[in-house]
Amino acid sequence: MTFAIAYQGEPGSNSHMACTEVRPDWEAVPCASFEDTFAKVASGEAQLAMIPIDNSIAGRVADIHAMLPETSLQIIGEHFLRIRFSLLGIPGSSIEQAREVHSHIHALGQCRKLIRQHGLKPVIAGDTAGSAREVSQWQDPTKVSLAPPMAAELYGLDVLATDAEDDPTNTTRFILLADKSPIPTRAELPGPAVTSFVFRVRNVPAALYKALGGFATNGINMTRLESYMEGNEFAATKFMVDVEGHPEDPAMVHAFEELEFFTTKIKILGVYPAAPFRLSHGGSNN
């Protein structure tokens, strides 16, 4: 049986690279949108989805926070990808010939130094790897692409510059999603764990402060707290949270008991192993 992992974007994108790092022996399936990526797993055409959730420079990925609570899938893992960009041109071209640099808006914003250094005109493309494909099709030495390194080989382009990003710590956190199944028990997940969930606060004074107080008093590390509006309500009505720990841990049990007093519609999105990157950068000790 061939296993497949779906991702949003074109071959050679950072999401594609994340797939090959986590599941090198699986078929990586490109999708046009995040909705299509979720649907591939829901339909059984793919066993996993690789979804970027936030970037250390650009912040959260648009729309994902709204999609996760509505999907039937659940988070089963996380992966941190160090983001690298190369400047790519057609075979035989040089950086001196380049006039326009094409890429996704975030990539252009993360490589400003190189763009200014060579006096290039930034042109926004829908996808980093897609810009490499377009440069390959245009066969114009004045047009170059900022794309992940693997795009060079895929689209037959020359690497004109490596490590083009301004910040060498640039990292994107991805989550892996699969069909919904029972949450793994503590015995099944004995190491450091992460629990992701969403909730709504009750309409009482200081509800958020009181809801989250249990995590502080029980010594639980909260690594993500995001608010967003729901429907046409112009207020922060929903919150998405990542905490380090398993729901069966005694401290987590007490924290969730306090959370329930001041919230409604708590939904656990996933309980999964903490990634090695998290642990090596001062993360979970649970």
TrEMBL record:
Gene name in the database record: pheA_2
Catalytic activity: prephenate + H(+) = 3-phenylpyruvate + CO2 + H2O
Alphabetical list of PANTHER family matching this protein: PREPHENATE DEHYDRATASE P PROTEIN (PTHR21022), PREPHENATE DEHYDRATASE-RELATED (PTHR21022:SF19)
The enzyme's E.C. designation: 4.2.1.51
Organism this protein belongs to: Arthrobacter mangrovi
InterPro entries: ACT-like_dom_sf (IPR045865), ACT_dom (IPR002912), Chor_mutase/pphenate_deHydtase (IPR008242), Preph_deHydtase (IPR001086), Preph_deHydtase_CS (IPR018528)
Coiled-coil residue windows: none
Principal EC category: lyase
Name the UniProt record assigns to this protein: Prephenate dehydratase
